[in-house]
């Protein structure tokens, strides 16, 4: 047990990089796994982000660029999106998708390691990525997000909400027992507003989806 009473995990239990068949068909698989609801869900999430036309957005774990494409609909040509991922197959899809849009770029970078951005972005966004890291790396990612944000910018985490997986609705229990890495349960059991507050964020807002089991949690960087 750790000092905060949570189980200890190591990086071998993390499932972050998507490769092979799953990477090549990721968008289709997400649609199938959600019974066709994912396109409607993610459009609603992007709407709830409150994107402004001149926003600069850093997308951590950008995958195929699908989310970036939805965010770009709210942006002007003077804005920009920078997407980061470690999976070459996913990055290749994203780069092909936006080959004619120079204000939307993608780079291969591990998001848990030091990043070069300093107060450059209005929003930092993550979609179902943070739960796949051990807590030590999650805190590094949060520090990277804070460093990259302008004063008053928002860190926006789309991921599991706060709940006890073993007491959840039975399909959710099945996902956590057989489809997710152990780190997902660890993530859902933690108080993320409290953790983010300790890391220099405040002014929280949230939206819930999928019967409350999924949450968009936004936190503002303190000036």
CATH class: Alpha Beta
The CATH topology turns out to be Rossmann fold
Judging by the overall fold, what is the CATH architecture? 3-Layer(aba) Sandwich
- The end-to-end span amounts to 35 Å
Q: Any idea what the CATH superfamily is called?
A: Vaccinia Virus protein VP39
- Number-wise, the strands total 7
The share of residues in extended strands comes to: 15-25%
Number of helices: 9
How many discrete structural domains?
1
Estimate the mean pLDDT confidence. 92
Q: What is the helix fraction of residues, given as a range?
A: 25-40%
Strand adjacency order, main sheet: 3-2-1-4-5-7-6
Outline type: globular
What's the Cα radius of gyration? Answer: 17 Å
The biggest sheet amounts to:
7 strands, mixed
Question: Spans of 5+ residues with little confidence (pLDDT < 50)?
Answer: none
SSE pattern, N- to C-terminal: HHHEHEHEEHEHHHEE
> Structural class, judged by helices and strands?
alpha/beta
